[in-house]
Amino acid sequence: MSLMNKQIKVALIGNPNTGKTSVFNQLTGLNQKVGNYPGITVEKKEGVCKLSRGVKAHILDLPGTYSLNATSLDENLVIELLLNKKDKDYPDVAVVITDVENLKRNLLLFTQIKDLKLPTILVINMADRMDRKGISLDVALLEKKLNTRIALVSSRKGTGIDRIKELILDYRSLSTEPCVNASAIDRTYFDSLQNAFPDQDLYKLWLVITQDANFADLNRHTVPDTSSFNTKSRSELKRLQQKEAIHRYQFINNTLKDTYTTDMHAAKGLRASLDRILTHKVWGYVIFFGILLLMFQAIFNWSAYPMDFIDESFASLSEWAKGILPAGVFTDLISEGLIPGIGGVVIFIPQIAFLFLFIALLEESGYMSRVVFLMDKGMRRFGLSGKSVVPLISGAACAIPAVMATRNIENWKERLITILVTPFMTCSARLPVYLIIIALVIPDKRVMGLNYQGLMLMILYLLGFLAAVGSAYVLHKILKTKTKPFFVVEMPNYKIPLLKNVVITVVEKTKSFVFGAGKIILAISIILWFLASNGPSERFDNAEEIVTEHHQGTVISEEELQTEIASYQLENSYIGIVGKAIEPAIRPLGYDWKIGIALVSSFAAREVFVGTLATIYSVGSEEEDTIKNRMAKEINPATGEKLFNLATGVSLLLFYAFAMQCMSTVAIVKRETNGWKWPIIQLVFMSAFAYITALIAYQVLK
Amino acid sequence: MKTTIAHLKRGEKGIITDIPIDIIPVKLFEMGCLPGNQVELLQVAPFRDPLYLNINGSFLSIRRETALLIEIEKINETTEL
């Protein structure tokens, strides 16, 4: 009975680019979930697979790893799990995924896993490419030589998946004998190691010792403590590791000699001819920028239609809820807080989905590695890596998916820097703010055929980019990490992306945004709604009477009266009081308390700025021209001059260019860095930087 | 003057002779960058950095600073013609 309920715990292990995730998708379908491992930001993908006879397998898709000698956080995780038998995820059986074209290199990891004395199944994937590449394989002999069971699989065609399921079900019959004796590389050393720790497994001890030399980040509570055993220097250990690699390759070469043949006359393949164009010194960049252009087109133009639709739908849903529910605070909360709050999350879905669609296509096809190759040199000057290109570009659409896209960067320091600087890129939410302020303060004149206003907009985009790479450079100089950054990028084969993989990626990433960041956005918008629709004093509660009384005797339309009441209420709401309270702090920047309200309310989302000003300046319609005219008439009570002059305008533009002002980004950075430390540092730094530049600009220009 | 991977021209091949074990990451050994294995330079980015290689059947790109550390013996194919 207990056997029926127990799930077989399976770990999928394999080098990157072996189609491991495709196999995972084939085994689990949409029956999977993506989360984070506690304490670190490595994605944890797990799913359930139904085997025959009512038995189920719990499948854990471990991060891609080249070997059991960790050089990244992802790889470290795999080793910690495999060294710790008490871990709840410790597998009953390991399934090692390999690519038939790279079998030699992929088998290195297999021999290491086998040395852990874990039941291990070998999956040889991409079997559909064997004919074209002239590869033939003696599976039966290979099974014997490697002392394992093999499934020849094509995750693309979906063949061989049932064989994996059969082998998993029958895992108890797998041999747990190692196929390489690692201790042969230095008998005396390994003997003394075993004598020092007679209860421990020798290969595991060796792994712990060498991890210390490489990565120095293993969790001491879960692995045997070998720190007392220091009989070799670092460089001696490394020499042994090289010997171990040679030893393993000797075994692999001997094994493959009789079982694996390649017909050299078979077609050389697509790689060389595609690479000649795609990594070309000139055409490579031209093509890359062409793809970028297409991406931006999609993110801005194509997603505008669904976004408008979502916007309108939520607005009418709000109206509808207001109409159908009995009037009261609860209805207001739903129609003014909850529904617009959910709408604020949902509206990001088209952009995020488009972005991840493109990224998934570029990744799946193998093109992304070529971009990394092309851009690495340029990015390195700023402490970034070739892999930072995609997030930075995405940041010009929206920082949220951009921060999520940094997951491709293995090196933690380079990834962290990328996460921290990406919000400087000019995202689409800054655009409406820029447009209205530029129209107000920058003259619509031309110099040498160039429009001042267009020029200003371009400068702002450029400033965002410069702030990003500039702060990356500073962070690069001050951040210290234990991991030594080094750059080895595998250049995978070109492949036609698998629809199923692309769809699953887009759905998973979008889902994790909606449920991850969504919760926080929703909470913030409800709080904002509360603060804007409640006030502590009589003046808030009796706004209607006060304003009506004030207008006694004057002719005023109902609509004008309503907007004036709304604006009077806002002034006396909690958020209005906050605006007045911070006025002394923002006066040196050239702002009054009304801009203060806009700043406070756009603290959560900068695009709120225009809408808030519209309400404050008692504008009934949100037509841009009207807001603009009203704003243009505003007088600064301190100076008696126009409030929105060049100095105030430029100061505001710079403030919005550099301030973080996006709760969703804070939420996503918190999630991606697993803690409040970095988002708070980022928020404080960006706000301070924005304040200081705005201050300098106003004081110089006024 | 010693020859390293960074000294290869596009399309040229060599046999790895010596690797400074202390500096080169283990990962590179494990990807097949070991003495005796063949390396071919396939493509270079502008400023010859990074380099795109075929090492022992693995397609990798490494930075120039790393390539300069890996000594090789060039295979002179032109003499075979």
CATH fold name of chain B: SH3 type barrels
Number of contiguous helices of chain B: 2
Estimate what percentage of residues of chain B fall within beta strands: 25-35%
As a percent range, the share of helical residues of chain B equals 10-25%
Cα distance, first to last residue of chain B? Answer: 27 Å
Largest interface (CB < 8 Å): A-B, 41 and 29 residues
Query: Mind telling me the CATH class of chain B?
Result: Mainly Beta
Q: Could you report the average pLDDT of chain B, rounded to the nearest whole number? A: 88
Give the uncertain stretches of chain B in residue-range form: none
**Nearest-angstrom radius of gyration of chain B?**
12 Å
Strand order of the largest sheet of chain A: 2-3-4-1-5-6-8
Q: What number of structural domains do the residues of chain B give?
A: 1
Distance between the termini of chain A: 81 Å
CATH architecture of chain B: Roll
- Structural class by helix and strand composition of chain B: mainly beta
Quick take:
Chain A has 702 residues and is of the alpha/beta class. A seven-stranded mixed β-sheet of chain A has the order 2-3-4-1-5-6-8, with helices on both faces. In chain A, strands 7-9 form a two-stranded antiparallel sheet. In chain A, strand 10 and strand 11 form a beta hairpin.
